[in-house]
Design brief:
single chain, 492 residues, seven-stranded mixed beta sheet, 14 helices, globular, oxidoreductase, Ald_DH/histidinol_DH, Aldehyde_DH_dom
Length: 492
């Protein structure tokens, strides 16, 4: 028997029964059993949500002061903190992440929303010294209806990343969670209702990307798409968005270089390299999945990595002893296993993992896997696996590792370890990535802009920079002179 059944979806401030009779079945990835069902909306509900968002922008939401918008966001953040324990358990059941990870993500999501609550009344235009007899200034106005199309790997984090800046800037937003992980989206909708946002400001439409996502991308009354996911999907969205030249921001994954020089603090680098490669069962776009190690320390480092990988506890998400849980879906597990086989076919040397953990007969589990002596041009090193698979690559010189680090279609995150401060800055300036970290890895924070080069995306999340993507700039010029401006038609 299913433990969670959602017969209605949240549209325009109300819980609505979709016109169709289809349901979305959510599978617990640790057991492979369906544990939740959600009513599946279609195009009719997309139209309803967009119309409700438009009405809110014309009506009550437009009359809210920026400070009042911030107060509502702060209330939502506090409601998330209040329900964090329940939300974390639901997320772990739906997504497969260990409970300690989902609890941390929910706490951080509340912090993200709190940050943008404080930013709401600090979104300013500028006065421009255009000429002495005119007042020229800019206004930052809401972009309009935002559709946020989200991934399955970190759902609650992504809700916060999109809701925060969109609502702080005065937009209305439609959340489309991934079909694999929609349960917490329905719970967040309840908290949005409890927080008191006006009708239509937020709607939540679970459903398949090819149906609900595609309808939002093509809808003529949607002004912006904020998408996190695979780059080929972003390309489809961009084509669909061309109809009304929607604004688009994309965060689309990576194949991040993690570089260890021989003069680094090797003990710290080893621990961080492990975490950066295997956290979230490898289901993260910012993994340090290509580990470049300078040759004098390469053999020792690979032995240590292999030994530690074997000690990672793979298990049930609700077990507090678990380090990493199952993949979120059978499809993702199959993809990871395909890449493990491909790595062996390509000649990389398997030094840890590569199979299913012992004693776990059900669930989408795989061992943390390490390949050594990987060719940087191989599919294993170039394509995003989205699983706990680490590629180790030796290098000799700074010039060599820079060339290999940048030799990829992605450019989201990079990390490097060295005690040479000049080298640290020199390499950071030359790596083609949106976030470069030195003697740490991936410090993602609500204050820090986050996004990618190349196929890793367009635009930035987080920080105050993200507000630029959720506002339109309007220039206003007021003539203050009492003297009529000269006209070529004088005398007519």
């Amino acid at each position: 028997m299913n433990e969670r059944i959602y017969e209605k979806v949240f549209i325009g401030g109300e819980w609505v029964v979709p016109k169709g009779d289809q349901v979305l079945k959510s599978i617990d990835p640790s057991t492979e059993y369906v544990w939740a069902e959600i009513a599946l909306p279609g195009k009719a509900e997309v139209d309803m949500a967009v119309a409700a968002a438009r009405a809110a922008l014309r009506g009550s939401w437009s009359k809210f002061s920026a400070t009042r918008r911030g107060e509502l966001l702060a209330k939502l953040a506090n409601l998330i903190r209040r329900d964090a324990a329940v939300l974390a358990e639901l997320e772990s059941r739906d997504n497969g992440k260990p409970l300690r990870d989902t609890r941390g993500e929910i706490d951080r999501a509340a912090d993200w929303i709190t940050f943008f609550a404080g930013a709401a009344d600090k979104i300013n235009g500028e006065q421009i010294p255009y000429r002495p007899d005119a007042l020229a200034y800019t206004r930052r106005e809401p972009i309009g209806v935002v559709a946020a199309i989200l991934p399955w790997n970190s759902p609650i984090s992504m809700y916060a990343w999109k809701l925060g800046p969109a609502l702080a800037a005065g937009n209305a937003i439609i959340i489309k969670p991934a079909e694999q992980t929609s349960v917490t989206a329905m719970e967040i909708a309840k908290l949005i209702e409890e927080a008191g946002f006006p009708e239509g400001v937020v709607s939540v439409l679970p459903g398949y990307g090819a149906e609900v996502g595609a309808a939002l991308a093509a809808h003529p009354d949607v002004n912006k798409i904020a998408f996190t996911g695979e780059h080929s999907t972003a390309q489809q969205i961009m084509r669909a968005a061309a109809g009304n030249l929607k604004r688009c921001t994309f965060e689309c994954g990576g194949k991040s270089p993690h570089i260890i020089f021989e003069d680094a603090d090797l003990e710290r680098a080893l621990q961080v390299a492990m975490h950066s490669a295997f956290r979230s069962t490898g289901q993260s776009c910012s993994l340090g999945s290509r580990l470049f190690v300078q040759r004098p320390i390469y053999e020792r480092f690979q032995d240590q990595i292999a030994a530690l990988a074997g000690k990672i506890r793979v298990g049930a998400p609700l077990d507090p002893a678990t380090h990493i849980g199952p993949h979120t879906s059978a499809e993702q597990l199959a993809k990871t296993m395909k890449f493990i086989a491909l790595g062996q076919e390509e000649g990389a040397r398997l030094i840890a993992g590569g199979g299913r953990p012992l004693g776990l007969d059900r669930g989408y589990y795989v061992q943390p896997t390490v390949f050594a002596d990987v060719d940087n041009r191989s599919a294993l090193a170039q394509q995003e696996v989205f699983g706990p698979v680490l590629s180790m690559i030796p290098f000799d010189t700074e010039e060599e590792v820079l060339a290999m680090a940048n030799d990829t279609q992605y450019g989201l995150v990079a990390g490097l370890w060295t005690s040479d401060v000049t080298r640290a800055h020199r390499i950071a300036h030359q790596i083609e990535a949106g976030l470069v970290s030195v003697n740490t890895y991936r410090p993602v924070h609500f204050m820090l802009p986050y996004g990618g080069y190349k196929l890793s995306g367009i635009g930035r999340e987080n920080g105050l920079d993200v507000i630029n993507h959720y506002t339109e700039v309007k220039t206003v010029v007021v003539n203050l002179s009492e003297t009529p401006e000269p006209s070529p038609f004088d005398g007519i």
